[in-house]
Specification:
heterodimer, A: four-stranded antiparallel β-sheet, 0% helix, B: 118 residues, mainly beta, four-stranded antiparallel β-sheet, globular
Chain lengths: 112, 118
């Protein structure tokens, strides 16, 4: 069972905006630890999408954005494209016995 | 640009020991700024952090796996290793190695699928 909770699936038509939520607790996101987001295309390894709450690595389109507030974080995809269909995971650090690094349960984004 | 590649057996019998290697190319493992980690993904499930090691050999494991997992490093060979003892079907997963940059994982290896079955 994942420490961080994500909505299992979201969908949208091309061009639309979708958001993915990531809910944690006072031992991880709420403790001030940064949130990172990964994109996992089918059959491939996860790839860093956002780090440090809202920083896009070089090469990541600016239609991806993220924010954090309290014990939660969210990832937004604006101008949804077919190539964005993938699984998305949030990740943070944790001070409990869950382990130093924890992941979200994952969200499947479907482009209609 | 750093690249990682996992290798090892694709099939392991229950109660045996699983040994995986991650070979690093395109960069040094000796930088004190980076740690190296193993992560696994059970079939159709989410991601689970296993543990990390730095170039000095300092390790940190997920508490529930601490008694079963051992991570080692050979900076001269540019290899990272994972040993998992007394495996069960619950250890069937895709295993990834990755570099820890700050508090995030980048890059990742392509992963290696391991099945525990008799």
């Amino acid at each position: 069972q994942s420490v961080l909770t994500q909505t299992p699936s979201v969908s949208g038509a091309p061009g639309q905006r979708v958001t993915i939520s990531c809910t944690g607790s006072s031992s991880n996101i709420g403790a001030g630890f940064g949130v990172n987001w990964y994109q996992q295309l089918p059959g491939t390894a996860p790839k860093i999408l956002i780090y440090g709450n809202n920083i896009r690595p070089s090469g990541v389109p600016d239609r991806f954005s993220a924010s954090k507030s309290g014990t939660s974080a969210s990832l937004a995809i604006t101008g949804l494209q077919a190539e964005d269909e993938a699984d998305y995971y949030c990740q943070s650090s944790d001070s409990s016995l869950s382990g130093l690094y924890v992941f979200g349960s994952g969200t499947k984004v479907t482009v209609l | 640009q750093v690249q990682l590649l996992e290798s090892g057996p694709g099939l392991v019998k229950p109660s045996q020991t699983l040994s995986l290697t991650c070979t690093v190319s395109g960069g040094s493992m000796r930088s004190g700024n980076y740690y190296w980690t193993w992560i696994r993904q059970h079939p159709g499930k989410g991601l689970e952090w296993i543990g990390y090691i730095n170039y000095s050999g300092d390790t940190n494991y997920k508490p529930s796996l601490k008694s079963l997992a051992t991570i080692s490093i050979d900076t001269s060979k540019k290899e990272l290793s994972l040993t998992l003892t007394s495996v069960t079907a619950a250890d069937t997963a895709i295993y990834y190695c990755a570099r820890i940059s700050g508090t995030w994982f980048d890059p990742w290896g392509p992963g290696i699928a391991v099945t525990v079955s008799s």
